[in-house]
Specification:
Number of helices of chain A: 24
Largest interface: A-B, 82 and 93 residues
Structural class of chain B: mainly alpha
Distance between the termini of chain B: 40 Å
Number of strands of chain A: 7
Largest sheet of chain A: 2 strands, parallel
Radius of gyration of chain A: 25 Å
Structural class of chain A: mainly alpha
Shape of chain B: globular
Oligomer: heterodimer
Number of strands of chain B: 1
Strand content of chain A: under 5%
Radius of gyration of chain B: 19 Å
Helix content of chain A: 55-70%
Chain lengths: ~600, ~300
């Protein structure tokens, strides 16, 4: 038996240990993050899957725990991402202004994850929720952008306050802060309000339209090793909140008979569809590879919300599995880009090219990650998208199907862009001779994640069986699984069979290739140029405005949401100036006067 | 399982031979239309075998690996194709989405290899191919979703049997608007004019294929022939009621491919943004209208 409390305390303590050791030598602190996150992940996974997590609490005040399959699903997956990414920390730690603080905050934010997913009390959950927000808020500016942290905090605050109000309303209805009691007790008009609040919170956390603008800013500017954690792990907190709202609360709303779907759920699905489309369109036009992946996270967040909002067990299963496959794929892709960023000093595609020549392993990792992200077999992304397609088609949602397929085909476009512009193409002269493959310690997690991408695609039933337990716990029928097959609503899928077929195809192609005459190796500059003499690599590399013809069709309409938030920001600033003018002038007595008036007004009727 | 796999490889080989012959005959037909004599019907075979026997240049390992991945992925996809009701390798497992996404592995391999050649024209060609795909696949998928929702199965052979059952029309009749969209999408998928923007020989020097020669080009030609076989067979199975025996399949296959070739002969080429605007203006609208009237109003002929 392993006590969750003990794990939490160990995690918190190792955070402070990391800080102290980080003061001595910055690399030691980073190594503590590896040890600590690996320990937390492996104990959670081992004791969790053998059903031997102990929930008794003896030291921590107010905190109570419970073990649910839902919580364990999220906790194990998120700590796995933390554990994998932590291998990158020693290599990046020298870039930070406060290396000790980085190591400490990294571990503390992971400790918060344990608290959120294993508690049965709303207030404790909210406390750790905020704990994660605050620790990660101080991690983001270590990537040298203060604005990114502000933007992250502003949107997180929207989500947090919405969650807090929802918690208060449920407390009012149930009489206690218990999660299950609160969700069960809420009904009538209050249920609708709580539903909306929780959905706002989920959208803000997941970065779904229209609360998405923080995603590219925060992901793009966070330190390289923290971007995968944000995108693969922390964003998924929103999915957890979305499950509470969409599955556990059923507000009395008008049911659309033709679609067999409540209006509330359908509206969420519409916004999820918009997230998919807008995320895809914005990802297509990014030049910074990290921002591109951030917008792809927005689009995939839309898939997850859409899957949950359909309310069928195959949709739920697809949503949960998409959380896993997207976390693995985006984690691997972000790590590959981080490795390139470390070796070259930039992640902008227009400044890079031909990185594959010196970093082939990183390239293969990225390739496997994007095959999964684009939903192509034999990787995990195909299985989860297939399940989501089943759910969408089962409901006959034509418009959402168009959005889903747009996101799916669009993902071919945006994931291919870094492949062509950053990894392939001409080798830029400034990197010739100096560029090296990433160090082995960085290759380890990348290779493990690639392996996981393959395993999720070939043997998905290992994971889907556990997800079935989660679904049953949420009160739905499990998805029918064979030994290797998955039964959908309109067909059966056998991922192993597809993989074997692909393997046979490649073997045949390889035999044809190897039997024929050997080719002559020529350089990359030795290409057809229609008779023109092109002497430099820059001129021979196509990487700027890669999708110019399609970008041109919508480039005038890309800033509407930003403009809206900008004007909102100006209004808030103006209001702040008004407040400042009346209350905080250079005469302190005026401020004191107003404070007294306000206190008097607040206490009116109670004491006075 | 292994036997089914061998059977599948047989189907892929059958598809290669079939499509290369049909394409050869169509070259002859086009020639006669333009008052030329036209090449022999087996000219495409000669081209491919000549290329395979020649010595070529290579631009590094990704250039070669991409070609292998492309051909391998396409062979794997073709293995799942149901040719007739009985001539198929994996009954029940010929899910539509396997074709839609497994074919993408082959495409990705080719795109990767082309970009790996370091020629900007190849990257531009790939960009145009992906953009075209984004244009034509969405309306097409919406039509397919309608069909799957109506029949309750996504198995290609299941859909063919559904159309053959008494009282059901072929979907080209049952869903006439959807069929128009599917024909347009098929033309774009096959790279027929006016949607052949990504090949555009005189403009971007054959796009993705610009750097290839010898065995790599030969393998990519084989890959293209099998890709076309997959796309046309899917159309035959989805909209023309599949085939009870091999003879009916051959007739339907030849009719579809020849009709599309004839249509494409009278068109000039679209610009790439025109392709996108075209598909998002009419076919997408028609597809959605078809979906609404078929699913929610139940108007199926």
């Amino acid at each position: 038996m392993a006590s969750i409390e003990l794990l939490l305390i160990i995690a918190l303590a190792s955070g402070f240990l990391a800080y102290l050791l980080g003061r001595v030598n910055r690399v030691y602190g980073a190594i503590v993050t590896i040890v600590s996150s690996m320990f937390v992940f492996s104990s959670l996974a081992y004791f969790g899957f053998t059903d031997s997590l102990d929930t008794t609490v003896s030291i921590l005040p107010y905190v109570t725990f419970q073990v649910t399959y839902l919580g364990m699903f999220f906790a194990v997956m998120i700590t796995f991402i933390y554990a994998m990414v932590s291998f990158f920390n020693p290599m990046f730690i020298k870039d930070y202004k406060y290396p000790g603080a980085y190591s400490m905050l990294y571990i503390l934010s992971m400790a918060g994850v344990i608290g959120v997913f294993f508690t049965d009390n709303f207030m404790v959950m909210f406390f750790f929720f905020e704990f994660i927000v605050w620790t990660s808020m101080f991690l983001i500016p270590l990537g040298h952008s203060r604005k990114a942290a502000v933007s992250y905090y502003a949107f997180s605050a929207v989500g947090s306050f919405a969650l807090l109000f929802a918690i208060f309303m449920m407390r009012e209805a149930a009489g206690s802060f218990g999660i299950n009691a609160g969700l069960a007790a809420i009904s009538g008009t209050n249920a609708i309000v709580v539903f909306i609040l929780l959905i706002v919170s989920a959208f803000a956390k997941l970065g779904a339209f229209p609360l998405h603008t923080w995603l590219p800013i925060a992901h793009g500017n966070a330190p390289h090793p923290f971007s995968p954690v944000l995108s693969g792990a922390l964003v998924k907190l929103g999915a957890f909140v979305a499950v509470m709202a969409l599955i556990k609360i059923t507000p009395n709303s008008y049911v659309i008979v033709a679609l067999d779907l409540p209006l509330a759920q359908y509206l969420v699905a519409i916004f999820a569809g918009l997230s998919i489309v807008f995320g895809t369109l914005m990802a297509i036009r990014q030049d910074d590879a990290k921002k591109l992946l951030a917008y792809s996270s927005m689009s995939h967040g839309g898939y997850i919300l859409l899957a949950f909002s359909l309310g069928s067990s195959i949709g739920l299963s697809g949503g949960f599995y998409h959380i896993v496959t997207h976390a693995l794929a985006t984690g691997a892709a972000f790590l590959a880009i981080a490795a390139v960023g470390r070796q070259t000093g930039t992640t902008k595609m227009s400044e890079l090219g031909g990185v594959i020549q010196k970093m082939p392993v990183t390239y293969v990792v990225y390739l496997i990650a994007i095959i999964s992200m684009a939903g192509i077999p034999p990787m995990g992304g195909f299985i989860s998208k297939w399940l989501i397609f089943q759910a969408v088609i089962d409901k006959g949602l034509i418009l959402l199907a168009a959005a889903v397929f747009f996101g799916s085909i669009g993902s071919f476009l945006y994931v291919f862009r870094p492949l062509a512009a950053l990894f392939l193409g001409q080798e830029k002269p400034q990197f010739k001779g100096i560029l090296k493959e990433a160090p082995v310690i960085m290759l380890i997690p990348m290779i493990v994640l690639s392996g996981m991408n393959l395993v999720t695609g070939i043997f998905p039933n290992i994971f889907l069986q556990f997800i079935n337990k989660v679904i049953v716990e949420l009160g739905m029928a499990p998805v029918v699984l064979g030994t290797y097959t998955i039964q959908g609503t309109n067909g059966i899928l056998d991922p192993l069979q597809i993989t074997i077929a692909f393997g046979i195809g490649v073997v045949i192609a390889f035999i044809i290739f190897i039997l024929l005459k050997k080719s002559k190796q020529v350089g990359l500059m030795d290409t057809y140029t229609a008779g023109n003499f092109i002497y430099s690599e820059e001129l021979m590399h196509y990487s700027v405005d890669f999708y110019a013809p399609i970008e041109r069709l919508y480039e005038k309409h890309t800033t509407h949401v930003q403009d809206m938030y900008k004007s909102l920001e100006n209004k808030v600033k103006e209001f702040g100036n008004v407040v400042k003018y009346f209350f905080f002038t250079n005469k302190p007595e005026i401020t004191v006067f107003w404070i007294l008036i306000i206190i008097g007004a607040l206490l009116w009727g109670d004491l006075l | 399982m292994m036997l089914s796999m061998l059977y599948g490889v047989g189907i892929a080989f059958f598809g290669f031979v079939l499509h290369t012959s049909v394409a050869g005959i169509n070259r002859k037909i086009s020639g006669r239309l333009q008052k030329r004599y036209g090449p022999k019907w087996y000219q495409e075979f000669l081209d491919i075998f000549k290329l395979l026997s020649k010595r070529a240049t290579s631009h590094g390992w990704i250039f070669d690996f991409g070609v292998i991945m492309a051909l391998g992925g396409i062979i794997a996809t073709a293995m799942f194709i149901p040719v007739t009701n009985n001539f198929l390798a994996f009954p029940d497992f010929d899910n539509f989405f396997i074709f839609a996404y497994l074919i993408a592995v082959g495409m990705l391999g080719m795109a990767m290899s082309a970009s790996g050649s370091g020629n900007p024209l190849a990257s531009i060609g790939v960009m145009r191919a992906l953009t075209t795909m984004l244009a034509y696949d969405i309306p097409y998928m919406v039509v397919i979703v309608t069909i799957i929702k109506l029949t309750g199965t996504s198995s290609i052979s299941g859909l063919a049997l559904y159309q053959q059952a008494a009282g059901n029309n072929w979907f080209i009749v049952a869903l006439p608007l959807g069929a128009i969209v599917a024909v347009l999408a098929l033309m774009a998928g096959l790279g027929k004019k006016p949607f052949e923007t990504y090949i555009a020989p005189a403009e971007i020097a054959s796009g993705p294929l610009v750097e290839y020669g010898g065995k790599q080009l030969g393998m990519l030609f084989i890959m293209m022939e099998i890709t076309h076989f997959i796309e046309v067979s899917l159309f035959v199975n989805l909209f023309l009621g599949g085939a009870e025996n091999i003879f009916i399949f051959l007739v339907k296959y030849f009719a579809v491919y020849t009709a599309l070739s004839l249509i494409s002969n009278v068109y000039a080429r679209f610009k790439i943004d025109q392709v996108v605007l075209f598909f998002y203006k009419w076919p997408l609208l028609i597809a959605i209208v078809q979906g609404f009237i078929a699913i929610y109003l139940g108007w199926v002929i």
